[in-house]
Amino acid sequence: xxxxxxxxxxxxxxxxxxxxxxxxxxxxxxxxxxxxxxxxxxxxxxxxxxxxxxxxxxxxxxxxxxxxxxxxxxxxxxxxxxxxxxxxxxxxxxxxxxxxxxxxxxxxxxxxxxxxxxxxxxxxxxxxxxxxxxxxxxxxxxxxxxxxxxxxxxxxxxxxxxxxxxxxxxxxxxxxxxxxxxxxxxxxxxxxxxxxxxxxxxxxxxxxxxxxxxxxx
Length: 217
Description:
Largest sheet: 7 strands, mixed
Distance between the termini: 33 Å
Helix content: 25-40%
Number of strands: 7
Order of helices and strands: HHHEHEHEHEHEHEE
CATH class: Alpha Beta
Structural class: alpha/beta
Strand content: 15-25%
Shape: globular
CATH superfamily: Vaccinia Virus protein VP39
Oligomer: single chain
Radius of gyration: 16 Å
């Protein structure tokens, strides 16, 4: 989903006054749009810039990304890692492994990003330690599951980011007019809203991104 909730001219203005993509990210953006199915899943310039800025602000040592796609968001998040930081990224589609790794290498991040392929719900328990930052951008039906799986692995003061939380605007429709994915995303948003262990803000950037900070165990 990539519904723009800002007028196109405003979105373009925001991109104009956002630090340009690196050459690697621009090339990845182009190749994804030309060669890969569902290029609308790419984070893109404005959201990628936000992810990069948040990562630089947090300076995480360990990041977990659930949903790699072609690696654009992984690169953005990895750019803000602490010097000894590492990012683990999970995706179901092994066919994109080589493309992702090629761009990780071009950006000099091949030693900072570890790729995992398979079902996230099966892979997450195999990863050791805590994560300072988690980015959820995978199958919408399982957002609530992933949230439950990772919140205990995030320290107090750590962050969870969730993409597509406006789901093409469907979340504001009556329940009987929502798709299954939209209902799942709305349920996730309600879950976060009622969770007393976190504070959160929903930003209408691109298809909506939720920033969640863990405040207590």
